[in-house]
């Protein structure tokens, strides 16, 4: 990562560099999430097709706005956001989404795990930002709230009447998809 030459008033350059690095990871995660959501939107089939297909577009739009917010915050702090596909693939620490054309419920089981990963990482970064940069922390808190609501929408399809999630014991996307079929 290049050293930044300036940042916002009241934030030391070294701290801004840490925040930019943290935000670049979130930028990659959110870019990946919006692409994954659109992939599911295009590849969902079955009896719940239209409900899931139409549920996902507003999520895609909201996550795209989060991507823009993260990139613009990086620039505001004096960094240079890298939103190229090559950078995303090079820098990510997670695997590509593993489900192709499949039933709505299978995709929702897999998406639950995707959301868990993104939200968990957002919350970890929120904790790191407590004293480092509360402005960026507020942005991630708002994003996490939206992401948690989107996961709730997904989980409502997976929840049994006793409150358990059919995909709860799965730790892979394909495992979660299989568990809910």
UniProtKB/TrEMBL annotation:
GO terms for molecular function: ferric iron binding; oxidoreductase activity, acting on metal ions. Its EC number is 1.16.-.-. Residues 21-159 form the Ferritin/DPS domain. InterPro entries: DPS_DNA-bd, DPS_DNA-bd_CS, Ferritin-like, Ferritin-like_SF, Ferritin_DPS_dom. CDD domains: DPS. Keywords: Oxidoreductase. It holds the Pfam family Ferritin. It comes from the Bacteria. The keyword Oxidoreductase applies. Belongs to the Dps family. PANTHER family: DNA PROTECTION DURING STARVATION PROTEIN, GENERAL STRESS PROTEIN 20U. This is DNA protection during starvation protein.
């Amino acid at each position: 990562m290049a050293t930044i030459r300036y940042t916002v008033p009241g934030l030391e350059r070294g701290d801004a560099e840490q925040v930019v690095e943290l935000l670049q990871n979130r930028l990659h995660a959110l870019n990946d999430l919006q692409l994954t959501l659109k992939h599911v939107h295009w590849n969902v089939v079955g009896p719940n097709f239209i409900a899931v297909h139409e549920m996902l577009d507003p999520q895609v739009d909201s996550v795209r706005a989060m991507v823009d917010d993260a990139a613009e915050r990086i620039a505001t702090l004096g960094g240079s956001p890298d939103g190229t596909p090559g950078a995303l693939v090079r820098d990510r620490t997670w695997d590509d989404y593993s489900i192709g054309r499949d039933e709505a419920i299978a995709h929702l089981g897999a998406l639950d795990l995707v959301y868990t990963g993104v939200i968990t990482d957002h919350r970890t970064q929120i904790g790191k930002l407590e004293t480092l940069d509360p402005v960026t922390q507020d942005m991630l808190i708002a994003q996490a709230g939206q992401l948690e609501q989107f996961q709730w929408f997904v989980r409502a399809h997976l929840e049994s009447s006793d409150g358990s999630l059919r995909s709860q014991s799965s730790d892979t996307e394909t495992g979660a998809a299989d568990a809910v079929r």
